[in-house]
Design a protein that fits this description.
Elements (H helix, E strand, L loop, with lengths): L4 H7 L14 E4 L6 H11 L5 E5 L9 E6 L2 E7 L5 E5 L13 E2 L5 E2 L6 E2 L5 E3 L18 E7 L2 E5 L7 H4 L3 H4 L8 E11 L3 H7 L6 H4 L14 E3 L3 E7 L13 H12 L22 H14 L10 H5 E7 L3 E6 L2 E9 L6 E10 L10 E6 L7 H8 L1 H8 L6 E4 L4 H14 L8 E2 L2
Parallel strand pairs: 12-19
Antiparallel strand pairs: 1-20, 1-21, 2-11, 3-4, 3-6, 4-5, 5-10, 7-8, 8-9, 10-11, 12-18, 13-14, 14-15, 15-16, 16-17, 17-18
């Protein structure tokens, strides 16, 4: 049974996004956002050692389904075997290193290198080597595809190049228990959007790791979200923030009308309740004592019911409070009772370029079949994934340029940006940086 929402909601009232202010700001050396040497250290010491979201179970639901995941120079091939098992391998032929399989798809019966024809079964066992006698004594069992750790959680597929890595659930810390009420496994991914960005992967990740920027970059949101009473938690590899929607930000000096709060929600979040921009305030549907958030929740339940999803178990707080989780190094997901958006940032060809990958999902009736998502790619200039995310993307190139300026030696971060700080704290640990190259100040 879920705890009474009224009690849970009241527990948030006195919590804010800052918490206890630190003694001073945290200073982060800025060169780690553009230094080739620092990026090389990440490739050597961090990326091969961390759990990374690669795809969803919708990508690899059936035997013969496959998905190629790339992160910097690393390639991982995820395959659903004939036996139904999910496996992952380093995407390298054991002959001369050619990528065995690229892209994603279905119907694989074997894994055959397109260069010289070495062939493995879907469990990674070498089965055929053309002109094998030319290699002399070559024992087939000595050349399986190199394994990669793979695991799934709530429909998300993670990989780790370190076969001795801690289990995924241990890496996720408190997150699974904290969001268990949301039934994330009922969501289905219908599309991914990869956006090529002129910014470092950390510059991208920082944008979805704090709410400090809402008041300036997203003025529309201030009219329908409380960005001040947005408590944060840090667990280790992971962190969390949650924000109540359907209410105005306390930053406004005057009170907005219910109609104005509704209009702002419709403009920025209306798709979540099936409301097109301009949908009028439903005054005729309002019952005595109902808040704007209650009306949003009622519309969201009706929208879900239209696709066969019962949200009667979710009260207003479950539907309108957005829970955002960060998973080191590069992932966030945002969830409430009828919403799940997952985002990852990944390194590009050099430290000044990266990718933002957005996984778009919808909640379906429990046990709904899985269909292949549409995987799309675009540029930052062309991407329009909604008003808020578009604003986030458009600021990134300017951020990255500014980081190069010779007078800027450090980022200056506040307690409200503690999830950004935590990412750097973990990064310093994985890279084993000397004290002189670490953050200073803060707590």
């Amino acid at each position: 049974m879920n705890a009474p929402v009224g009690n849970r909601a009241r527990s948030h009232v006195q919590e804010d996004a800052i918490g206890t202010p630190p003694a001073g700001p945290t200073l982060v050396p800025v060169e780690r956002y553009y230094s080739p040497a620092f990026a090389a250290l990440e490739v050597e010491r961090m990326w091969p050692k961390v759990w990374q979201l690669a795809c969803t179970l919708d990508h690899v639901a059936e035997p013969g389904d496959y998905f190629e995941y790339r992160c910097g120079p690393y390639g991982v091939l995820i395959v659903r075997g004939d036996d139904g098992e999910l496996r992952a391998f380093q995407n390298a032929c054991r002959h001369r290193g050619n990528s065995v399989c690229v892209g994603s798809g279905s119907g694989l019966r074997e894994l055959k290198c397109g260069y010289h024809g070495w062939t493995w079964d879907l469990a990674g066992t070498l089965k055929r080597v053309p002109n094998r006698k030319g290699f002399g004594s070559l024992k087939m069992s000595d050349f399986p595809l190199l394994p990669v750790r793979v695991d799934s959680w709530e429909g998300m597929v993670f990989v780790n190049l370190d076969v001795d890595a801690m289990p995924l659930l241990e890496y996720l810390e408190a997150v699974p228990d904290d969001i268990a009420w949301c039934r994330l496994s009922d969501f289905r991914c219908y599309a991914t959007l990869t956006v090529d960005v002129d910014a470092n992967w950390k510059t991208i990740a920082d944008g979805y790791s704090e709410t400090y920027h809402i008041q300036t970059l997203h003025p529309e949101l201030l009219r329908c979200v409380d960005d001040i009473h947005a408590p944060q938690r840090i667990w280790g590899h992971t962190g969390k923030s949650d924000q109540p929607y359907g209410v105005q930000s306390p930053r406004f000096d005057g009170a907005l009308s219910d109609e104005e709060v509704w209009d702002a929600y419709v403009r920025t979040q209306g798709a979540l309740m099936g409301a097109a921009e301009g949908t009028p305030f439903p005054a005729d549907e309002r019952r005595p004592g109902q808040t704007v958030a209650d009306l949003i929740a009622a519309r969201t339940r009706a929208f879900a019911a239209g696709r066969g999803v019962d949200l009667d178990w979710a009260d207003t707080d479950r539907i309108t409070r957005l829970h955002q989780y960060n998973v080191f190094p590069n992932m966030t997901f945002l969830a409430n009772a009828d919403h799940l958006t997952i985002m990852c940032s990944r390194p590009g060809p050099d430290p000044d370029h990266g990718e933002l990958v957005i996984f778009l999902t919808t909640r379906m009736a429990s046990g709904a079949p899985r269909n292949k998502p549409a995987d799309m790619r675009t540029t930052a200039g062309e991407a329009e994934p909604g008003i808020v995310l578009t604003q986030d993307i458009q600021v990134l190139a300017g951020l990255q340029r500014g980081l190069h300026q010779p007078g800027l030696t450090h980022l200056t971060l506040s307690g409200e940006e503690r999830r950004v700080i935590n990412m750097h704290r973990n990064l310093e640990r994985y890279l084993d940086l000397p004290e002189a190259e670490r953050m200073t100040g803060g707590e």
